[in-house]
Write a structure and sequence with these properties.
- The complex is a heterodimer of chains A (319) and B (184).
- Chain A is α+β, with helices and mostly antiparallel strands.
- Chain A folds into two domains: 19-49, no CATH class; 56-310, Sulfite Oxidase, Chain A, domain 2.
- Helix content of chain A is 21%, strand content 20%.
- Chain A has helices at residues 19-23, 25-37, 40-49, 72-77, 91-94, 119-125, 152-159, 200-204, 256-260, 303-306; strands at residues 104-109, 115-118, 129-136, 141-151, 167-172, 195-199, 209-214, 217-218, 228-230, 243-249, 284-287, 293-295.
- In chain A, β11 and β12 (293-295) form a beta hairpin.
- The longest helix of chain A has 13 residues, at 25-37.
- The N and C termini of chain A lie far apart (93 Å).
- Chain B has 184 residues and is mostly helical.
- Chain B has one domain (2-177).
- Chain B is globular.
- Classes of the chains: A alpha+beta (319), B mainly alpha (184).
- At the A-B interface, loops of A face α1, α2, α4, α5 and α8 of B.
């Protein structure tokens, strides 16, 4: 008879932690710790591990200004995207209806090479970069986002604007099966399509960026997939989402918020702590994820790069 | 028992707010979120306080009307505190300037001071003297509604529904006032 004699250090089988529990131990420990103290530091650790896989290939931003990034969780859970809802924290769960497959962009108007191009083809034509930018919403909140995409100027150079092209006009998709608010007719929050515009010298500025991703992965739908504008020295509503058309035109286009409320919103919408919104102060901003406010910066901290675009303009008038 | 339920329901928003802020820690814009929860709670409770006399034949809460009003004041006070402490960081120059400058702010302030006056004069002795001024609650509710609409960047479908609801309440209150005049 073969009797197995237990060694002194062996423990009985029922004391062994099951494999699947053992593998979950880290999240289990963190969960316990988080619920005990729920301290910012632990939540930050958890948030770090919620990063997406890096699927894009791009030139990294050195982050010379040492900006502190907001977490992926914060950036993708707080969105103004009125085509879905005005509730910023609800966009994330609604955005799945946006259909981004086979996305095409029309570039037309006063250009030598007008085109209707597949987004995938466009991506192959241009060099992907990372840009770590401050983002300041006109409502008074702000964040720092690592975008991935390409400069708007690199695209403009491909289509070759004519000399009388003075402005760019951008349009968001209109598709009521993608966007619930576009089904509501007279009860819709805004007039669609959402329209934004830039002066052509603003568009040529190296900061003007077309983003197709963030944190190294493709753009989440709630953040304006598959391609959006990012103009970091202007209030967030200028950074139009889910772009389907870019037109080169001669006269200043009317942008959505200017149509909606011309007393409060203009064409330029440069971040300016010295000019209040009629209903609230713009001197400070609430950084996402923080109880504390910080001072807002002239041109959102990009004065050196863009102030010359507006020399001689009265910025209290050109809001 | 009724009183227990009133307090239970009335304190749900603050408990929920604290839970989201400090336990779940998932609120991305805390100052704005505190404004929303305290503002909505104050508005809803104050509207309920004027509905009590309308529904008294069905559910009689007349005995608790004062307490319900004070609970509304409690949330309005937290709302103002959020402005002074977290939003303005006790910068009184800024607070005063904004309060004089911006209709959005001073309409809210006026609404608050009406509710504050009512809270102060809600004791038995003072109420006897000042109750005729408590009709100011209607002015306060109008100011609150305007303040709330001004707080939005654009009105969405839900907000249209709330506005319709407020108009219905106003209609019934006006009917009630008319009846009171005729039958007295």
């Amino acid at each position: 008879m073969n009797i197995i004699k237990k060694k002194s250090w062996q423990i009985s089988e029922n004391l062994v932690t099951p494999k699947e529990l053992f593998e979950k131990r880290r999240s289990f420990i963190k969960l316990g710790a988080a619920s005990l103290v729920a301290s910012g530091a632990i939540m930050e650790l958890l948030a770090k591990e919620n990063l997406p896989n890096i699927t894009l290939d791009f030139i990294k931003d050195e982050n010379k200004n040492a900006l502190k990034l907001n977490t992926y969780e914060q950036i993708t859970s707080h969105n103004n995207f009125y085509e879905f809802t005005t509730n910023q924290s609800a966009v994330k769960d609604m955005a799945h209806t946006l259909k981004t497959e086979n996305w095409k962009i029309t570039i037309d108007g006063l250009v030598e090479n007008p085109m209707e191009i597949d987004l995938d083809d466009l991506k192959k034509m241009l060099t992907l970069e990372e840009r770590i930018y401050r983002f300041r919403c006109v409502e008074g909140w702000s964040m720092v986002v690592p975008w991935n995409g390409f400069t708007l100027s690199s695209l403009i150079k491909k289509v070759k604007p004519l000399s009388n092209a003075k402005y760019l006009r951008f349009e968001t998709l209109v598709d009521s099966s993608s966007f619930p608010d576009q089904k509501r007719g007279v009860f819709a929050t805004l007039d669609y399509p959402y329209v934004e515009g830039l002066r052509i010298d603003e568009a040529y500025n190296d900061l003007s960026f077309l983003a197709i991703g963030l944190y190294g992965d493709l753009m989440p739908k709630q953040n304006g997939a598959p391609i959006r504008l990012v103009v970091p020295w202007k209030y967030g509503f200028k950074s139009i989402k889910s772009i389907v058309r870019i037109s080169f035109i001669e006269n200043e286009p009317l942008n959505t918020w200017q149509i909606q409320n011309p007393k409060e919103y203009g064409f330029y919408a440069n971040v300016n702590p010295n000019v209040d919104h009629p209903r609230w102060s713009q001197k400070k901003e609430r950084v996402l994820g923080s109880f504390l406010k910080q001072n807002s910066l002239m041109f959102n901290g990009y004065e050196k790069e863009v102030a010359s675009l507006y020399s001689g303009m009265d910025l209290t008038k050109f809001i | 028992m009724k009183r227990f339920f009133i307090y239970l329901i009335a304190f749900l928003p603050i408990v929920y707010l604290l839970f989201r802020l400090f336990i779940l820690d998932d609120v991305s814009d805390p100052i704005k979120y505190i404004y929303t929860i305290t503002g909505v709670s104050a508005t809803v409770i104050l509207f309920i306080s004027i509905l009590i006399s309308l529904i008294k034949d069905k559910i009689n809460l007349m005995k608790y009307r004062k307490e319900i009003g004070l609970l509304g004041f409690f949330y309005a006070f937290l709302h103002l505190l959020n402005f002074m402490v977290l939003d303005a960081l006790f910068d009184f120059e800024f607070i005063i300037k904004e309060s004089l400058d911006k209709p959005f702010i001073y309409l809210g302030m006026m609404a608050f001071f009406i509710v504050l006056f009512m809270a102060i004069t809600s004791s038995k002795t003072l109420f006897r003297k000042y109750n005729k001024y408590h009709k100011l609650i209607y002015l306060s509710l109008i100011l609150i509604t305007v303040h709330w609409i001004m707080g939005q960047k654009a009105l969405s479908i839900m907000q249209y529904i709330y506005i319709i609801l407020i108009i219905i309440i106003t209609y019934y209150k006006l009917q009630q006032q008319k009846n009171n005049v005729y039958f007295k």
